[in-house]
Design a protein that fits this description.
single chain; alpha/beta; six-stranded parallel beta sheet
């Protein structure tokens, strides 16, 4: 009958190294007042015995789970899956485990994430909301640390990380204008409504058009039901079939832009000859489309780093860390769809 060796304990490491269990604990927790000779002896014992720190026990003593939640609308939208990868890498480097929750942009699910699912299996939440309203945030339980990504339903009260969407859309539009494009349509845009990402990016587009002395044409702003490939394809097809045709498409995410590229190809429209197309998010597929897609690239790695750092600071010092609103950088990456 096979027997399984007992897992070595701090007591075993202490006996091997000839020190007290307290000294072993001091070395494991990297306390300063331990001599290098003692530290080396304890480390040798740890290596020899194969001792592993009991993370669960440590976290239990600290009143924490060592887990954080990332709640995003849709994992099959590549931006969110790529962002999740960066969040997981950043959290792992800090000894945290990430639980992924897909909200489907449904308010009830976003509320559940905002309130920690009424369970204590997570120390804090990173949430990308689409359906929440200002009251939802104002009435949330402040004991749960939360960092919001994207656009907030309301100002203040919650830590936040995002890009400057107005500036990003303005720069994307300016790029199209620099290529002589004048009838620029916005797929996924919004002229009215609360200050969501679609509205802010439309505002940036308007600013660039007005600065160039061009009239704003509401008919060129095309809202979509969702930000998927097929929505971009349908919107592009409708624009080319009805009314004066645009000479460029500013698509508010890369899925819309790639869908638009397909619809234009099927109808015999050349890109970037007849039209330019630009997207948002710089998902991996944008580099491999034909033509490759010009896109606004938010710094996803930095968004993840900032969000995890803010959340862990809030977990460590919930009442002493000032609320922060971090604006992360972006750049317009020029590729073949705008002549790059």
């Amino acid at each position: 009958m096979n027997s399984v060796a007992a897992r070595p304990r701090i007591k075993d490491v202490a006996e091997y190294a000839g020190v007290s269990p307290k000294t072993v604990s001091n070395v494991i927790n990297n306390f300063e007042h331990v001599s290098e000779r003692t530290r080396a002896a304890v480390q040798e014992a740890i290596d020899a015995l194969g001792y592993r720190v009991n993370i669960a026990g440590r976290q239990l003593r600290q009143g924490r789970t060592g887990m954080i939640t990332l709640a995003v609308p849709e994992l099959d939208v590549a931006y969110f899956s790529e962002l999740a990868k960066h969040v997981m890498a950043e959290a792992d480097a800090r000894g945290q485990t990430v639980l992924i929750h897909q909200t489907g942009a449904v308010r009830e699910r976003e509320l559940a994430a905002l309130h920690g699912f009424d369970a204590q299996f997570s120390d804090g939440v990173i949430l990308s909301p689409l359906a929440l309203n200002p009251r939802d945030l104002a009435t949330r339980d402040r004991r749960l640390p939360v960092v919001l990504l994207g656009e907030r339903p309301a100002e203040g009260g919650t830590d936040h990380v995002g890009i400057d969407n107005v500036r990003a859309a303005r720069e994307a539009t300016e790029h199209l204008l620099s290529r002589g494009r004048r009838r620029i349509a916005v797929i996924g845009g919004a002229v009215r409504g609360r200050q969501g990402t679609d509205r802010l990016r439309t505002d940036g587009y308007r600013e660039a058009m007005e600065a160039a002395g061009l009239p704003f044409e509401p008919d060129l702003v095309v809202p979509v039901e969702a930000y998927h490939w097929q929505d971009g394809a349908r919107a592009a097809a409708a624009l080319m079939e009805h009314g004066p045709r645009p000479d460029a498409l500013l698509c508010l995410n890369d899925h819309l832009a790639l869908g638009a590229l397909r619809a234009l190809h099927e109808r015999g429209h050349s890109v970037p000859g007849e039209l330019d197309v630009i997207g948002f998010d710089d998902i991996e597929a944008s580099r491999f489309s034909v033509p490759s897609l010009t896109t606004v690239a938010p710094d996803k790695r930095e968004i993840a780093r900032a969000a995890v750092s803010l959340l862990l600071e809030r977990i460590d010092a919930p009442d002493t860390v000032a609320l922060r609103d971090e604006v992360v950088g972006h750049q317009v990456i020029v590729r073949e769809s705008t002549g790059g």
